[in-house]
Design goal:
The structure holds 2 protein chains of 2 kinds. By secondary structure, chain A is an alpha/beta fold. Helices cover 36% and strands 12% of the residues of chain A. Chain A has a domain at 9-265 and 409-496: Amidase signature (AS) domain (Amidase signature (AS) enzymes, Alpha-Beta Complex). Chain A contains 16 helices and 11 strands. In chain A, strands 1-3-2-4-6-5-10-11-9-7-8 form an 11-stranded mixed sheet, with helices on both faces. The longest helix of chain A is centred in the last third of the chain and has 21 residues, at 379-399. The mean pLDDT of chain A is 96. By secondary structure, chain B is α+β, with helices and mostly antiparallel strands. Chain B has 16 helices and 16 strands. Chain B has helices spanning 68-80, 178-195, 234-253, 277-280, 299-307, 313-324, 328-335, 338-348, 353-371, 382-393, 399-412, 416-422, 431-444, 446-454, 459-469, 476-486, and strands at residues 11-13, 16-29, 88-89, 92-95, 105-108, 118-123, 129-141, 145-147, 156-158, 165-171, 207-216, 226-231, 261-266, 271-274, 287-288, 295-296. In chain B, helix 2 packs antiparallel against helix 3, helix 6 packs across helix 7 (328-335) and helix 13 crosses helix 15 (459-469). Chain B is elongated and about 95 Å long. The chains are: A alpha/beta, B alpha+beta. Chain A binds chain B through residues 84-85, 91, 93, 98, 101, 103-105, 107, 207-212, 214-216, 242-246, 322-323, 325-326, 329-330, 332, 334-336, 346, 350, 370, 373-375, 378, 382, and chain B through 54, 57-66, 93, 95, 97, 99, 102-105, 155, 157, 283, 285-287, 290-293.
Amino acid sequence: MSLPSSPTDFSLADARDAVRTKKISSRELTEAFVTAIEGARVLNAFVTETPDRALEMADASDARLAQGEARPLEGLPLAVKDLFCTKGVRTTAGSRILSNFIPPYESTVTQNLWDAGAVLLGKTNMDEFAMGSSNETSYFKPVLNPWRARDSNQNLVPGGSSGGSAASVAGKLCLAATGTDTGGSIRQPAALTGTVGLKPTYGRCSRWGIVAFASSLDQAGPMTRTVRDAAILLTTMASVDAKDSTSVAMPVPDYETGLESGVKGLKVGIPREYRIDGAPSEIDVLWAKGAEWLRAQGAEIVDVSLPHTKYALPAYYIVAPAEASSNLARYDGVRYGHRTSDAKDIVELYEKSRAEGFGAEVRRRILVGTYVLSAGYYDAYYARAQKLRTLIARDFTEAFTRCDVLLTPATPGPAFALGAKTDDPVSMYLNDVFTVTVNLAGLPGLVVPAGLTANRLPLGLQIIGKAFDETTVLRAGRAVEWAADFAAKPDAWWRAA
Amino acid sequence: MSATERSARLIEGARGAWEVVIGLEVHAQVLSHAKLFSGAATVFGAEPNTQVSFVDAAMPGMLPVINRYCVEQAVRTGLGLKARINPVSVFDRKNYFYPDLPAGYQISQYKNPIVGEGEVFIDLPHGETVRVGIERLHLEQDAGKSLHDQHPDYSYVDLNRAGVALMEIVSKPDMRSSEEAAAFLKKLRAIVRYLGTCDGNMDEGSMRADVNVSVRKPGGPLGTRCEIKNVNSMRFVVQAVEYEARRQIDVIERGGTIAQETRLFDSKAGETRPMRSKEEAHDYRYFPDPDLLPLELEQNWIDGIAASLPELPDEKKARFLRDYGISAYDAGVLVTERELADYYEALARGADAKLAVNWLNNEILGRLNRDGRTIGECPVSAAANNAILRMVADETISGKIAKDVLDIVWTEGGDPHAIVEQRGLRQVTDMGAIEHAVDAVIAANPEKVEEAKAKPKLAGWFVGQVMKQTGGKANPQVVNALLKARLELPEEG
C-alpha cells in the first residue's frame, strides 16, 4: 500500500490499515477531513458538523491504538445521515419540524459504529424525512453534486434522499458514510455521485433510532468509495437487535471475507423488464457492458423475467406514503420539535405546527398516505398495493431459482440540474424505477460506479441478490468494480469557491 | 338454559312492552409490571410522567417490542373465557390525533384479534343461569391522561398510562336487562381476578365498560344501538342502561328514530348525553403496524398456560355444591371472590359446612361490613374461626359464647382455645352443678313455679336465671331438659 497524496484520498480499508500500522494517526486523518469539510461548505453536504467531538473521538482512538487495542473501525472518520438519532447531537431528518431536536439516545447502527471505534465527523444533509430523489426537499437547502458535466458550471443534484452522504463520500469529505434506503435513497445518489451504495436485506440493520419514513421499507446501509469499504462498513452496521421486532436473527458474517473470490460459475440474471422506453441509450449500453464484464470473468448470463416490475413504482407510492402518514403523526408540536408560536387551541396547534414544520413534498405524501388509508379507499389502494408487493416478491423468488444475482441499471439517467424536476413529482419519482422493486421485496441491492456518460457524469450498475445473501452481492459487485476500473474523479471545483 | 328461554324482563312503554338488548365492551388493564410495548412501569398513582419510556413518548425512531407476559395474560384470560385462541393475530395502528396519544396512533388489534369466541355464564338472583357469548378479546395500548385543571391557560398531559396493556373484551348482544349487564361485568371481573390477569379495580380505572344499548319489540328485529362510553362502576352500568333504554323507548314511541351514536354517561345527572359529533367523526385509517410482525403463538405454549389455569368460579361453585351441600345461592356468593371462597374452605375444614356458611355470612361478613373491611383485611383468620366452630361442635362452648369469643379475638387478637380456657368460658355440662343451680332457682321462686306450671312459656324466665347463675356457661339443652322435668312441664312446649 502506498500512501495517497492526501489522507482524504484513502479508501476506508486503506485508512484502517494505515491507522493500525501507525502510518497515520486518527487525529491526523480526522483533521484532514475536518479541513476538507470546512473547505467544501458550498456543497452543503452537512447539516451539522461535529469537529470537536470528532477530534475527541480521534484522540480516544489514538490512545487505544497506542495500547494495541484497535477495534474494527478504530479511528476512522465517518459521516452519518441526519436520519440516525445521535445522542447529544442534533438530528433533524432534514426537516424544520426537527430542526431543534437533540436526541437523548443513540441509534443502534451508529452505536455499533462507535463501539467499533469510528469517529463522527457530522450529520449529512438529506431530503426531508428521506422523501426525495434530489436532496432538494431538505429544509437545510439542497446539496450540490461534486460532479459537474464536462465544461459546465451548472450545479447538479447528488440524488436523494441520502444526497449529503453521497456528496461527502464523492467529495472526499469523509472515508465513508451511512445512508438509508426506502425506495433507492442509498443507491440512486451513489449512482449519481460515482460512489458505492448498498441497501442490505430488510431486517439486516436495526431500524431502532432511525427516524422512520416507511417502516416496512426503510433500511440502513453503507455509502463508500469502494465495494470493499461497503463490506467493511456493513459488517459493523449490521446486527441482530431485540429492540427492533423486524430485525432478523441471522448471524452477521464478515462481509469482507471472500470478496475477491470472483464470479466464476455465478449465474447472473438480466431481467428483461428493466429495459425502459425513453431511457438514454448510454444506460442500456453500460448494462450490456456490465453483463459482458461478468461473462468474461466466468459468470453465466441468463435472461429472466420479473413480470410485475411495472407495478412496483405505483405500489411503492401507495405503501410508502401510507406508512409515512402514520409515522409522521408524532410530529405534532406537543412534546418536542417545532411548535407554532400562535395557536388558540389544540387543533390549531397541530395544524400550524405541522404546516410550518413540514415542507411541500412531505405534506404531499402525508396527504396521499392519509387518502389511501381512508375508509372506502383502503381496499382499492393500500390492500391492492400490498398484493402487488407479494407478486413482486414472488417474481424475484422465481427469478432466483434460475440465477444467483441480478444485474440491472441503477438509474434511468445521470445527475440532473437543480430544479429540473422539482415541478414534476412524477418525473422525480421515476428516478427510483430500478431501485424500488428491491425495497418492496426486502432484498439487498448494491450500486457500483461503472462508467461515465459522454458528458463525463457517472453512471452505476445495480446487483440485486437473494435475502441475506449480501456476501454474493458484494462479490459480484466487486467483479463489476474491478472490470469497470472506475478511476474518474470530480474536479474539486468547490475548493476554489 | 339458552338466552331465549329465560323469563322475559320487559319494559312497559306507553304502547306495549319493549325488550332491551345490551352488549358490553370491557377494557381490562392487564396485570403486568411493564407496558405492552415498552419496559416502563405501570404502578397506579405515580407522579405524572415518571413511568414513560422513549417508546411511550413516541420519540423519533423508537420502536415497539411486544411484552411476552402481556400476551400470556391475554391468552390466559381467553382460556378462562373458554374462548378460541388464535394462533396468528395482527397488531394494527388506529390513527387519530390527541395530545395524550403521543404517536398519533394507538396500537390495537383490528381484524385479527388474539382471542376469538368464548362464553361466560351469569347467575341471576332468581336462580337462573344465563349464557353471554364473548365475541373477541384483543390487546391494545392505553392512552395517556389529559389534565385540564392544572393551569388556567394550558392543558397538561400525563403519559404514565400511555402504552399500558389493555384487553378489550367484547360480548355478544346477549344481555336483556341492566341487572344482567351488571351481573356479566361482575362475573367477568371475578374471572379475571381469579386468573390474576386484571385487578378489576374499577375505581382506579383498571376496568371500564362501553355499553351498547338498543331496544326492540320482544322477538322483533334488533333496534339501532347507542354506545355509552367509559362507564366505570357496576351501579353506573345499571343506571346508564335503564336511562338509555327508557330514553330510546320514549323517542320511538313519540314517532322518532334512534340515531346510532356515541353517548356519555353523566353519573351526577344519572343520564346519557350525546358526545360532541367532532369526537366521533373519526376515520381511524387502520392498517397493520409495520413495526411489528404478526403475533404467532405455539400450541405447546398455549397448552402450558391452559394447564396452569386456576379453578374458576363456575367450577368452584359446582364443587362447593357437590362437596359442601350448601345452597346454590350461598355457593354463588362465596365464589365471587377467590379470597372469600378460600376463606370459606379453610373455615369449613372439619366443621359443619352449612354452619360455616352461616357463621361466615352472619358473623364474619357482618363484622367486616360494619368495619368497612374486605375479607382480605379480616382481623381473624379462617383457622381461628374454624377453631371456634369446632369448639361449638364438640360442645366446649355454646353458640352464644362462640360469638363472644369471636368478639374478643376480633378486637384483642389471641388464640380462641386459650381465651376459652383463660376466661373460663368452657360450657358447663356437669349435671350436678346444673341441677344445683336449677334447684336453687326453683326453691327461691315458688310463686314463679306456680305461674310457670299454668303458663309453660314462662319456663324461659327460669332458663335465664340459671344461665345467670352459671355465668352463661351452662349447656342450654341440659338446662332446658332439667327445668322441664322439675317443673313437670310437657315435653312439647
